[in-house]
Every structure is written in C-alpha cells, then in structure tokens.
Known about the structure:
Layout: H1 2-16, E1 30-37, E2 40-41, E3 46-50, E4 68-71, E5 77-80, E6 86-95, E7 103-112, E8 119-125
Parallel strand pairs: 1-8
Antiparallel strand pairs: 1-2, 1-5, 3-4, 3-6, 6-7
Amino acid sequence: xxxxxxxxxxxxxxxxxxxxxxxxVPLPTEICVKTQHHHQPIPKATxxxxxxxxxxxxxxxxxxxxxxxxxxxxxxxxxxxxxxxxRHWLVAYGYDSLYFPHDVWGSLRVDIxxxxxxxxxxxxxxxxxx
Length: 130
C-alpha cells in the first residue's frame, strides 16, 4: 500500500513539472510581396488577406471583410506569417506620387501548402486601372 502511494505521488509530481502543451502548432508558412507600380516600389501599401477564398473578393470590401493585413515598408516589401494552408487572395492599396492618378491597387491569388509551397516571395504589381 505504501509503495503504491509513493508511486502515485511520484507520478503526480513528475506530471506537474512538465511545461504546458502549446495551444497551437506554429506553421512554417509565409507570404512576402513587393508592391510595385511602373517598376517603382510602392511603400506603405496596405495588403489585405482573405484566407481560403475560391473567388476574387473585389475592391469594394471594407477592411473588416478580410482576415488579416500587413503594410509594406519603405522598399515596398512586406510579409505575413504564419498563414494557413489554402488558396488565399491578397488585395493591395497604395499611393504612387510619381504617376497620376496617384491611388493604385491590385490583387494576387496565392496557394500555400506545406511540403509544396510553404513560403512565397514575389512581386505584386499594382496599377491605377481595373
């Protein structure tokens, strides 16, 4: 009896020393784009992401429609990670002071899949006409 109580106490003590299990498994996925208009980088462009979308969401949706967003840096580059596996749409809005009209936008469909294309780094061309 004493031995079983001792073993039970040891098991309980060892189980209490373990760190908690992670709530989520981090994915090694990432999407990076360089927003570009007429071969010029577009800094401070806002890129909205709609996850697991089969069709183009359009340019008329409010920011709340999208699942996530990121802003490009001074060189026009921006990244988001981790992202879920699936087919996603990126919709970007920016400002180009060199060309008129200055407001530019564009979209890009991307597919992310572990083992095939977990990371994507590409140019996202945006323009004033759509």
